[in-house]
């Protein structure tokens, strides 16, 4: 079995890791830039159980413990750390929304607690807050490179742009990489925000669109902001060193653009942060960067294969801004499917054909 994995982000590397662990021999990752160039090297490194849809909460209930176990085993330490998420409930609408969500979360055993924000000695807010203590943080680079470290002698890395999926008799037979034909029996598309565009050009309609997001890190302050704090304008948290990492809650047009960071957004982030965190009044920005959320119409990922596709074509992409935390577990599901033909229950829920069948997941919590 010759397997070509397109895209060397967290998901591509995780699929390769899990296939290699099963003893699959001929695995190649085709990456146009370098391992972790895309969103997997540009995210906030947070994990959570708290989603709007029961499908994503259920997925997280399987995926997060899997991530936390893997953290203990990898040769590089991704520093998985339980910090919690804290929502600032600015008005009745958000309060009532979170109250409804708490009932769902409680039913999955991950309920949180309502409290006065003033109980958080680092916050200036007098609003109501909601603390979900089960969530946390990890370092995304060490996760991907920890997986990569385990397989780098076993997997070929092909540096080039995948341009065309080659088929014959209803089956995948390879990929065109730049101008070269690369034979393969199975092709796994783990192209993140680029997956929809690539598959579309190959005649397979998959609704994944790039949405640019900027993210910032400040100079360090004494560590106090343990949870990821989410207000209506910004989200932020301390890194262990004491820098504050976060971004603003806005949306950009869905398109490929450059990875610049705008002065305007930097200033909004700084202004809001200084308003909310005690002792952060004069704090400065150390650096900022940007990446893509890989958005689908129901803000949930797409995994498995379509009945309409040639045999041997698979996808694992479209995580809509919450895919880093899921990379280990999704890689396992995909490897079980490709190597053993084992169909995890989530392959039905997050199947690519759900858009045609109008069986969408009701996910609204994109952070
Ligand atoms: C600012 C920001 C904050 C985020 N915060 C979090 C968070 O806190 N927690 C969380 O879980 N998730 C978070 N995410 C989302 C997370 O980063 C992504 O969901 C995840 O990294 C997607 O991984 P991937 O492997 O699918 O895609 P990517 O990491 O984007 O990998 C795709 C790869 O494909 C390559 N590629 C593209 N086209 C081609 C081609 N034609 N041929 C070959 N290679 C190609 C790219 O170079 C890239 O390396 C955040 C994202 C951003 C941008």
From TrEMBL:
Question: GO MF terms on file?
Answer: oxidoreductase activity
- Residue span(s) of domain FAD dependent oxidoreductase: 2-337
Q: Could you list the residue ranges forming a coiled coil in this record?
A: none
Origin: domain of life: Archaea
Per UniProt, the keywords (alphabetical) are: Oxidoreductase
Q: Which GO terms describe its cellular component?
A: cytoplasm
SUPFAM superfamilies assigned? FAD/NAD(P)-binding domain (SSF51905)
Instruction: Tell me the protein's name.
Output: FAD-binding oxidoreductase
Q: Which organism is it from?
A: Metallosphaera tengchongensis
């Amino acid at each position: 079995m010759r397997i070509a994995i397109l895209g060397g982000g967290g998901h591509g590397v995780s699929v390769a890791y899990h296939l290699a662990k099963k003893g699959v021999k001929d695995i190649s990752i085709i990456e146009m830039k370098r391992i972790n160039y895309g969103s997997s090297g540009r995210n906030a490194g947070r994990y959570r159980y708290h989603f709007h849809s029961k499908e994503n909460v259920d997925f997280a209930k399987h995926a997060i413990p899997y991530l936390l176990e893997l953290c203990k085993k990898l040769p590089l330490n991704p520093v998985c750390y339980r910090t919690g998420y804290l929502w600032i409930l600015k008005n009745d609408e958000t309060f009532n929304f979170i109250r409804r969500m708490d009932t769902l979360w409680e039913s999955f055993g991950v309920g949180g607690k309502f409290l006065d924000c003033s109980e958080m000695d680092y916050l200036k807010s007098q609003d109501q807050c909601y603390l979900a203590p089960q969530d946390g943080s990890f370092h995304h680079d060490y996760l991907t490179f920890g997986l990569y470290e385990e397989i780098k002698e076993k997997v070929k890395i092909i540096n080039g742009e995948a341009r065309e999926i080659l088929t014959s008799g209803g089956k995948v037979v390879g990929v065109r990489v730049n101008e070269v034909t690369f034979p393969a029996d199975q092709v796994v598309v783990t192209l993140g925000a680029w997956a929809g565009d690539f598959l579309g050009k190959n005649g397979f309609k998959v609704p994944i669109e790039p949405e640019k997001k900027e993210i910032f890190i400040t100079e360090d302050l004494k560590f106090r902001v343990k949870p990821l704090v989410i207000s209506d304008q910004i989200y932020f948290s301390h890194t262990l060193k004491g820098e504050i990492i976060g971004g603003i809650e806005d949306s950009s047009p869905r398109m490929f653009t450059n990875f610049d960071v705008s002065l305007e957004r930097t200033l909004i982030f700084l202004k809001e942060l200084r308003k909310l965190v005690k002792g952060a009044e004069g704090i400065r920005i150390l650096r900022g960067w940007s990446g893509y959320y890989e958005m689908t119409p129901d803000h949930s990922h797409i995994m498995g294969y379509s009945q309409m596709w040639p045999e041997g074509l698979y996808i694992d992409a479209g995580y809509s801004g919450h895919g880093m935390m899921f990379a280990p577990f999704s890689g396992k599901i995909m490897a079980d499917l490709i190597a053993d033909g084992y169909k995890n229950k989530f392959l039905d829920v997050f199947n690519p054909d759900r858009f045609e069948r109008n069986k969408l997941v009701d996910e609204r919590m994109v952070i």
